[in-house]
Protein 1
Amino acid sequence: ASYTTKPMKLLDRLDRIVRPVVIPNLTVVIIVLQVVVFLFASGDAGLLKRAELTWSAVMAGEVWRLLTCIMIPPTLNPIFLLFALYLFHLMGSALEQTWGTVRYNLFFYLGYFLTIASAALSPNDPATGIFLQGSIFLAFATYFPRFELRLFFILPVQVRWLAYLQALGYGITIVAAPLSYKLMTIAALGNYIIFFSPLLWTKAMA
């Protein structure tokens, strides 16, 4: 019982810390920023490279990368981008309603700072917020495992099966991918583990 309560007490303390910098409808804000970057990137092939979080570049004065890394859209294909942002909005908004605005922001901020830490550990390799958005998907799937998605607006599939595939992909990335991808994956899983370790522990012990 003490194991399961410690993470919750930590989250309660962190809630009070982040409350002054909470952003309501954070998912919508990020989507708008990603759409703006997508539009500009369509006419500037080097924009995404300048937006990536490369720690050596940050230390050289390009501090904007600390923020622009989460503005990078997951794809430049407009059809796939529409689908990805639709899912992000659906899942992020559902989590904000479930947790409340403060705790949802905390989940995102934890993943964000862990991503920055991962970039600092591999200073010459670029990092983005794509894996961070993946952690939001895992969180949604944990709460709503039987939620049915229309994959590409056609194929019905329960979100838990997609989450299993993503978890498998993360495992392969941690084992086989270059160091920067390993670190980004671990960072993306870090906030998930902090939030859901009590639930996962309870299920494992049941």
Protein 2
Amino acid sequence: MNSLFLIREPLLVEGLTTLLSNKVSGLSLNVVAEIEEEDLLGLTVEKGIDLFVLDTVSYRKTSTDLVKKLKAKIPSLKIIFIYDIISREILSAYRAGISGSILRGDSLEIISAAFQTVLNGEIYVPHAIIVNLICEGHLFSDIPDLVKLLSAKE
């Protein structure tokens, strides 16, 4: 399996590589810290990438557009997002075609379950997103915007 990680933090890459090497035989891993979108699209097609892991903190642009372009080039591409806060961007990314997402700071058990689910060809939606959708009764409020609506006393 050919994998491409767009992640800046070496420790995160090392941990995910160790995790994936136990789950995938013949893992071929390419790590890119920074790359232009067109170069990324070309590299993904050229190397025959099967799994693309995008750290949304490392990628400073709108990642939903990137997902749409990647899925247009390689419809079977499995895409996993690593994010730091639940936001509308994650919901948009699922609509665009990502296969799963994990939150920075998730346990090894959750990260492992996410990768295993995606590698099995299924969609992985974290519990935190499901709870936000069902229990809160809304689609991802942007917390920083809501906080601005509170008075100093609140």
